Structures are given as C-alpha cells and as structure tokens.
C-alpha cells in the first residue's frame, strides 16, 4: 500500500514518468477522477463542483478565478441524503488548499497511487510508505518539449515554461512553506536531460521495493 509523489519542473516529463510507473505497478494516477472519488469519501461531493488544484496553475493574482472559475463548493456537514447534509460556501485560498490536503491524505489511505505535484511531497512528508521523487531537466530541453507538445513558438514555450515554474514554486512556498527544489524533500532526483522515461520509471519501481523492505525492518 505504498504511495509515490512526483514533483516536476514543467516540461521535464514528470507526467509521462508517473504514467509509466502506474503501468508497471498497476497503481492509480492521482488525477481529476480520483480527486472526485476521494473528495466524495472525505466529505466533498458532486463531480461538477470538485476542483483540481495543481500548483503549476497557481498564480498569486486571481487565484480563485484561475482555479475555481468563480464556482462555489458544496461541503458535506451531515450524512449523505439527510435534509441538512450540506451547505454551500465560497472557498478562499486556504480552504481550497485544505481541500487538496484532505483528498491527498485520503488517497494516501487508499495506497497504491502516484501523486504528481499538488504539494504531495509536503502533505505526505512525514508519512511512512511514501517515496518522494523530483524530476528536473535543463531549461532548453524542457522548452523544446513544450514547443513540440503545445505546437507553439520557442519564445512562447520559453515564457510558458518559466511562468509554470514560478507558479509552482510560489504555490508551494506560500501554502506549504517549502522550497520545491530542496533535495532533502526527496528520496530521488532525476535529470531527464540524461535519463529517458523508461529508465527513470524502472529506477523508481526498484527504489519503491527497497523502501518497502526498509519499512519492514528487513535490512
């Protein structure tokens, strides 16, 4: 019942690596669908009202507009189906991040999940059975990947990549008081300018098996 968190620079291939790890292990990728499922179990419901808070979409200005689109979130306060089951409120920044904390902790309780971004390395920092991974790459390599993927110019890809990095760094510093590049947060850090997706995924899988062994006190 292990969990893997993956922190990644924009364009470094973190999502592709996470997907490959999920394929190898049969784990679940922590995406919008799983957020909806877990949020329902911890007291949030109605799929159209659940919001996916990802740090690379965070910006200091217009936070609520960017992440919540002006929507209101229904919060469970009683048994499902009861007349007073819920109330509707507008979430502020802290409440929105608290929602993500709860859903990530819920996913941790399920286990066998790969969480990309969203502050997973901070939220699950002290939890046993979690492998924390950091994915980086040189800016030039990331820009070229973004250019090809998004079908945009090099200049546009450069701006997009830098802005996404700033957004992620700001989000994690503001709400979790961490420097996302701090190596002490992670078990492993990879430079995908030197490793391909399959190689990184295989190393992560091997490291996870070692993590389980250590937890069982077998070494």
Protein described:
- The protein is an alpha/beta fold.
- The chain has one domain (about 5-215): 3-Layer(aba) Sandwich (Rossmann fold).
- About 45% of the residues lie in helices and about 15% in strands.
- It has 8 helices and 7 strands.
- The chain has helices at about 15-25, 30-40, 65-70, 95-110, 120-125, 140-150, 155-175, 195-215, and strands spanning about 5-10, 30, 75, 85-90, 115, 130-135, 190.
- The strands form 2 sheets. It has a 5-stranded parallel β-sheet with strand order 2-5-1-6-7, sandwiched between helices.
- The two termini are about 20 Å apart.
- The model is unreliable at about 45-90 and about 215-219 (pLDDT under 50).
Layout: helices, strands, pairs:
Blueprint: E1 3-8, H1 14-25, E2 28-29, H2 32-41, H3 63-68, E3 73-76, E4 86-89, H4 93-110, E5 113-116, H5 120-123, E6 130-136, H6 139-150, H7 154-176, E7 188-191, H8 197-215
Parallel strand pairs: 1-5, 1-6, 2-5, 6-7
Antiparallel strand pairs: 3-4
Helix pairs in contact: 1-8, 2-4, 6-7
Q: TL;DR of this structure?
A:
By secondary structure, this protein is of the alpha/beta class. The chain has helices at 14-25, 32-41, 63-68, 93-110, 120-123, 139-150, 154-176, 197-215, and strands at residues 3-8, 28-29, 73-76, 86-89, 113-116, 130-136, 188-191.
């Amino acid at each position: 019942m292990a969990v893997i968190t993956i922190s990644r620079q924009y364009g470094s291939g973190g999502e592709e690596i996470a997907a490959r790890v999920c394929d190898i292990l049969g784990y679940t990728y922590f995406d919008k669908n799983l957020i909806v499922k877990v949020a329902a179990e911890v007291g949030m419901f109605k799929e159209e009202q659940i919001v996916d808070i990802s740090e690379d979409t965070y910006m200091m200005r217009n936070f609520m507009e960017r992440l919540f689109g002006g929507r209101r979130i229904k919060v469970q306060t009683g048994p499902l189906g009861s007349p007073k089951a819920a109330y509707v409120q507008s979430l502020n920044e802290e409440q929105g991040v608290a929602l993500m904390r709860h859903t990530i902790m819920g996913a941790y309780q399920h286990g066998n999940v790969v969480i990309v971004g969203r502050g997973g390395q901070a939220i699950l920092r002290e939890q046993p059975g979690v492998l924390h991974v950091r994915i980086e790459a040189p800016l030039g390599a990331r820009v070229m990947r973004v250019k090809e993927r998004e079908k945009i110019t090099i200049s546009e890809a450069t701006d997009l990549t830098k802005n996404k990095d700033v957004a992620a760094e700001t989000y994690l510093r503001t709400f979790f008081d961490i420097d996302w590049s701090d190596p002490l947060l992670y078990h492993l850090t990879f430079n995908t300018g030197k490793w391909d997706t399959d190689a990184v995924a295989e190393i992560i899988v091997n490291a996870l098996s070692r993590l389980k062994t250590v937890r069982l006190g077998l070494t």
